[in-house]
Structures are given as C-alpha cells and as structure tokens.
Amino acid sequence: MKLVLASQGFMTKEIVDVVVNLVNKPKDEIKISIINEAYVGLAENKDKHWLIKELSLIEKNFKGIIDFVNLRAYGIEEIEKRLKDTDIIYIVGGKQFLLAKLFKEIGFDKLLKKLSNDKVIMGTSAGSIVLGKPVDSNEYYLDRYKVNKEDIEVPNLGFVDFNIIPHYLRSDRLRYNKEYYEKVLKDNTFKMYAINDNQAIIYDNGKLDFVGGEPVIF
Q1: pLDDT tens digit string along 11-46?
Q2: What domains appear along the chain, each with residue ranges and CATH number?
Q3: What does the DSSP 8-state code read for residue 168?
C-alpha cells in the first residue's frame, strides 16, 4: 500500500518529486484521477479559493491525463473501470465525516483498499484523515465537533495505524497549537502527525517518510 497523506497537495517541488518517484513512472505519463466529493458538505459562506488553487497545482505539475471520478454519479463497477488505468487516486479534502460515510455507503472503501495494491492513494486534509485511524479521544470530538465519539456515525477507514493533523499552525488555525492538541489528545492511543501545508507523510508498504521536515507528533 502506497499512501501520500498531505495537508494541501502539491505545494512544493519536493512533494511533487517524491510522489513521482513513488509512482515510478515518467512524470508526463502519470494519470491522476480526482475524487472531489468532500467540498460539497462545506457551508456556502466558506470560501472555496483553496479548492481552485489545489486543483490548479495538479494541472501545473502534471501533464498526463487528469480525470474526475464522481462517486455520486457512477455505480461501483463504473468507478472501478474508470480507476483501472490511473496511477494516482487523489482525494481532495473538505467536510471530514462526509467522505467516510459516502465511501462505506457505496463500497468505495473496499474498492480503494483493493486498488491500493498497485495505485498511489493521495489525500489532502480531510482526504488524508479519512484514510487513517479514527481518533479515540472523546475530548477531541467534544471540542472540535461538539459530539461524543460514539455518536460519530461512520469512522475513518483505518488503512494505517496513525493519522494526521493538517494545516498545523496555519494563520487561521493558530488556536489549534501544541498545547491545544496535548490537551484534547491526551487520551488518544496512537500517534497523530501534525503537518503544515508544505509537508506530507509517505507510507510505502509499512515504511514512513516525511516530506518537508519532521512533523510534530502527538
């Protein structure tokens, strides 16, 4: 299984180069299939410039085929057919709990795990979080989402035994600092890697590598 867990996509040349090496194919021949369902759950007054910027970075850095695979428009067999020849399945962020719910409703969670045997799965923000282990600290859910963890309808997929905290110390998220996460994650039983928008974590068949510097670990 080859996973790229990023905060904001192809923000640096280093992230681009590491992903190209992971695919092990000439850069201009790489096909990317984009899963972009999570943004629809965001409020209408939440600015979406970030989405346009993130998608533009894919176009800027990769000249092979770029496709959108709409999970709401196709049946699971058509989705599998459309992803058969892709090199990177790129899962965009947005509303965190929407993705896990949708994936499990249509069976995409099982298909994604099957495809991860020979595809690179790359997520950004919520698209990365959904691939990791569900946080098991109730204080985290109470503070961030005002719900108890047992009330979360569908947990993350748990492809790996850790998870990420994206956008760490970004200017609009300074409240969520080291002291904050030490408090709300004190009862969590596994590692959480906090990364900024120029960082990513590579999981290559059990081996972890950090792009853009060492993350903060909680």
Answers
A1: 999 999 999 999 999 999 999 999 999 888 777 888
A2: 2-211 (3.40.50.880)
A3: T
